[in-house]
Amino acid sequence: MVQEGAGLHVSKISKSFGHVHVLKQLDLIVQKGEFLSIVGRSGCGKSTFLRLLAGLDESTTGEIMLGGKAIKGINPEVRVMFQESRLLPWLTVVENVEIGLSHSDNSKSKSEIRALATEMLEKVGLAGREDEWPHVLSGGQKQRVSLARALISKPKLLLLDEPLGALDAFTRLEMHQLILNLWKEHQFTAFLVTHDVGEAISLADRVLLLENGNIAMDLNVSIERPRERDNTQVTELEKKVLNRVMNF
Amino acid sequence: MNKRFRFEGIQQWVLPVFLIIIWQICSSNEIINSRLFPPPSTILDTGVKLFQSGELYYHLGISAYRAIVGILIGGGIGFIFGLVNGLFPFAGKFFDTTIQMVRNVPHLALIPLVIIWLGIGETAKIFLVALGVFFPIYVNTYHGIRTVDRGLIEMGRVYGLSGWELFKKVILPGALPSIFVGLRYSLGLMWLTLIVAETIATDSGIGYMAMNAREFMKTDVIILCIIIYALLGKLADTLAKLIEEKTLKWHPSYAKQK
Does the keyword ATP-binding apply (chain A) (predicted)? Predict the structure, then answer.
């Protein structure tokens, strides 16, 4: 059941909207299976970068290679978890999870797909909720479904676009644990965009600070997991990044 | 709880039943002129007689036929135009302004012209009904397609949906609530158009029955026709509502309390 993540080579990526240069000649190498967080102020280009990785936009110049293949357009090996859950309200929970699978793979029968989706829902802690409509779920539960949908096809790269931003503190901590567990189990390469420096440090192997369309800081986080929020190393790193962001 | 519910069910019928009883008493005792205002019992009687002679059935059938064919043609074309214009911005730019301009012409104002063009046969009435229902269905389909949540479409694309799959799974279900608003509105317009068209130029149908009865001062038949129209309108609306509830059962506002 374990699938491999894939390494990512980003070389000289630029993205401009008219005269606005959002990303400038960005270079980045990500190891396979690495958990990476990107932090930065609003408008620093982190969402644009994520959209390029997802294949939703095309870069103006430069190239992105995933596991040795160039990313051009939508790629079934890359999945996105959005800030909002973006579940289809007219499909049941389990049908929403199936959306993640049915189009990348025609070799599976309907019952196999259903079994996979049910298993995935169990993994995110929503066993027994398969046939409910999304609107009866809480915000955290919706994001769990969205996570199940993203992971069911066993992507090599999972992009997380501030997926926990709208959740309350307790649910967030729960989701952190869930994401880390699934990451350990599935060994995909993870890319988390967040505003929350503390969250970035407590989850990732590596934290990038994006500023003016380029990487301003590249920080390895070698603290052993599980990392407590009040771990002194975590708070020290957090201070370091925040100081850099605020230009102290 | 259950008992109270049942009482509330009865409660709403108290006033109409009371009014009908008053009407019956006033009319059969000649407190009001029973030639102008025949009592409900007479109307019911007339209804049964007309039904038994097959006359009511015949006219009802013709009216229903016009309504159904009209809404299938007009609604179908409106739906297709709404889809095409909503899905393809180029088509939207090309057609929408023209359709919106034509929409402002009251379609019943075309009756004299339609009679000259198409005579008073079936074509004229079906044409008027089709024209009347076209616009609400078109406008609401177009609007529904264009206002589908962009985030969901983007999600669909990331998950590899495109073309027909994207339409079937994301765009059409997202537009359905709005399309149903158009459908229910156009059902009302359908009967309204038919009533007018059948009373002005025709030789059959419920409207014709009413106009014909006027010639002979048969007020009971006229009132019967009016009631039939009301019932047909209610029936169509209930039917649409049932389909709506079935199709939109995922929608929070239609969700049945468990």
Answer: yes
ipTM: 0.85
B153 interfacial to chain A (CB closer than 8 Å): no
pLDDT tens figures, B200-218 = 767 888 989 999 998 898 9
Kindly report the average pLDDT of chain A as a whole number: 85
Q: Is residue A13 part of a domain?
A: yes
* Strand order across the beta sheet in which A69-70 lies: A20-30, A8-17, A61-66, A69-70
Which CATH number does the domain housing residue A223 bear? 3.40.50.300
Report, as an integer, the average pLDDT of B6-22: 84
CA B115 to chain centre: 23
B135-185: pLDDT as tens digits: 999 999 999 999 999 999 999 988 888 888 899 999 999 999 999 999 999
Instruction: Please tell me what DSSP assigns to residue A8.
Output: E
Which one of B151, B156, B159 has the shortest CB-CB distance to A84? B151
pLDDT average, residue stretch B51-60: 90
Ranges of H-type helices in A3-54: 46-54
Nearest to B158 among A54, A89, A91 (CB): A54
**Count of the separate structural domains present in chain A:** 2
Beta pairing partners, B39: none
Nearest chain A Cα to B148, which residue?
Answer: A88
Are residues B158 and A74, on separate chains, in Cβ contact within 8 Å?
yes
Q: Are strands A157-161 and A78-81 parallel, antiparallel or unpaired?
A: parallel
Q: Which CATH architecture has domain B53-247?
A: Orthogonal Bundle (1.10)
Find the residue in B nearest to A82 (Cα).
B155
CB pairs under 8 A between A and B: 52
Domain final position from A133, A153, A173: A153
Indicate if the pLDDT at residue A152 is higher than 80: yes
For residues A145 and A178, give the distance between their C-alpha atoms in angstroms, rounded to a whole number.
Answer: 12
The residue of chain B with its CA nearest to that of A83 is B151
- Residue A3's pLDDT band, with cuts at 50, 70 and 90, is low
Determine the structural domain holding residue A48 and report its residue range.
Answer: 8-77+155-246
Residues of A within 8 A of B256 (CB-CB) are: none
Q: Angle A36-A203-B159 (CA atoms, 0-180°, nearest 5)?
A: 60
* Residue B159 touches partner A, C-beta closer than 8 Å: yes
Interface of A to B at Cβ within 8 Å reads: 54-56, 74, 76, 79-80, 82, 84, 86, 88-92, 99-100, 103-104, 133, 135-136, 149
